[in-house]
From TrEMBL:
Name of the molecule in the record: Protein FAM32A-like
Compositionally biased residues, Basic and acidic residues: 17-26, 35-50
Leader sequence segment: none
Region (Disordered): 1-85
One Gene Ontology cellular component: nucleolus
Phylogenetic placement of the source organism: Eukaryota, Viridiplantae, Streptophyta, Embryophyta, Tracheophyta
Length: 134
């Protein structure tokens, strides 16, 4: 019994704020939506009860604004890059375009024939070469 005299009984007490698991559990954060502003404006126009022509024009304006925003965002993406990073990205895009053009140029049959020719030209590494006079 002397071995167990120094043991502390009871539950483990943790420091800090206790979790409110009984009340409602751990609550997840709500996701923020990017297009809340544009959707609020659209809903506002629908609530006013304007004519359908005006609503169609407003939607067209939003789609054009989105297109302009996308073009501007691609330009904004390059603003924070260093010149070396810009050159790297442009070079990588050029290489990707050349690779895609090369792959798209050949049909499946041509690719299979080229691959078979490549395999025929390889040395047979699994053959055991004869070494010695035996």
């Amino acid at each position: 019994m002397s071995e167990y005299q120094n043991v502390v009984g009871g539950r483990l007490k943790l420091k800090g704020k206790p979790l409110d698991v009984k009340e409602g559990g751990v609550k997840k954060k709500k996701k923020k939506h990017r297009r809340e502003e544009s959707s609020q404006v659209e809903h506002g126009e629908h609530r006013e009860g304007g004519s359908s022509e005006l609503q169609g024009d407003a939607i067209n304006e939003f789609s054009e604004a989105d297109k302009m925003g996308e073009e501007g965002s691609s330009q904004a993406d390059y603003d924070h890059l260093t010149p070396a990073e810009r050159r790297y990205i442009e070079q990588k895009q050029k290489i990707d375009i050349h690779k895609l053009a090369k792959v798209a140029d050949k049909s499946h049959r041509d690719r299979i024939q080229d691959f078979n020719q490549y395999l025929a030209n390889l040395s047979e590494h699994y053959d055991i070469p004869k070494v010695g006079p035996g």
